[in-house]
Amino acid sequence: MQQNSVFITAFESACCAGLSCEALFEAICAHQSGIGCYEGYVHDKVVALGKISHEESRKRLLHQVCEAVRIQRGLEHFHDTLLVVGSSVGGMQRTEEIFFHDHSYVRIDPKGHIIHTIASSLHEVYGFKDDISFSTACTSSANALGYAYEVMKKGVYQRVLVVGFDTLSSTTILGFDALGVLSTQPCRPFDEARQGMNVSEGIAVLLLEHAPTKGCVQLKGVGYSSDAHHMAQPSPHGEGAIKAMQNALACEGILPEEVAYINAHGTGTQANDKSEACAIEELFGAQPFVSSTKSITGHTLGASGALEAIICAMALQKQIIPPSTALQTPENKALQFVYEPCSMPFRYALSNSLAFGGNNTSLLLGVLHEG
């Protein structure tokens, strides 16, 4: 065992499909979407969104999820731990609440608006050794995991807590509406009849350490690319996604044919799904199983990379390939989409996160050989 291998030793989540990672995985396998239809966010329009069903403030819920990870791992504290946060919204929701109530900016605290407000809130409670925040749109927490992987491989830190966190923000919802990509129903990634995406909120927390624990999953590699094809659309043939996936595999010399499952970014928009499907077909052919779980969770934006890393970790632990939901007629006929949960032995899973500006990140996860 290499000294600087990186293992995911504990994790927990909360999203519209479940207030724990176990509830989330059960919902995915049972095709129970957490997405609902709501008025009031977009003028004269009903839109499908993923809202967490919990009365606690999102800040308090975030602390509860972090505490669950600490207890799960049996740690007394996080004083020797680096905190890495990925978010695209930061404290924007709180800013909106104040402004919509007061119709004034007077009471808005700029320090509570920025991305770093999440890390500051957690630092006050846990006293981390240090912290850093990433905001790269929909790759935010995937890049947070990537940064954690890199500093641990280099031996800079022995333990890192990665947090993906985004809340529902009117600014974000209206922004995607302006782009014409919001769906009025739960999204249908990769389907010919897809209408668009569902903006959602989510919390995902993963603890990374050098020493493996029983049943843990290894973070085997991280791949990045920046194709800069367009400000808001991916390259039609997925060149950026291909490069990111290739770079993730190259971290430990894993061949494409060794990857059994790909958790696709799969947002349900016309441009993303077509591009990503082309990329997967070009690099892998029809060999790996492919699904998008966003028809259950919605698109949790900056939290999606960490949330879907947890889904992949659970899939590897349980040896169950998670299915897509609401996929009836795939636009790409070459890929091996999964329609029902599939129990089978497999070692490697890839999780894709693709963001505005051609900012792409792929995470490679694996399980250890028996014995």
From TrEMBL:
Family annotation (CDD domains): KAS_I_II (cd00834)
Gene3D superfamilies xref list: 3.40.47.10
Protein name, UniProt field: Beta-ketoacyl synthase
Record keyword Transferase present: yes
Organism: Sulfurospirillum deleyianum (strain ATCC 51133 / DSM 6946 / 5175)
Biological-process GO terms, alphabetical: fatty acid biosynthetic process
One cellular component (GO) term of this entry: cytosol
Family stated for the protein in its record: Belongs to the thiolase-like superfamily. Beta-ketoacyl-ACP synthases family.
PANTHER family: BETA-KETOACYL SYNTHASE (PTHR11712:SF320), POLYKETIDE SYNTHASE-RELATED (PTHR11712)
Single GO MF annotation: 3-oxoacyl-[acyl-carrier-protein] synthase activity
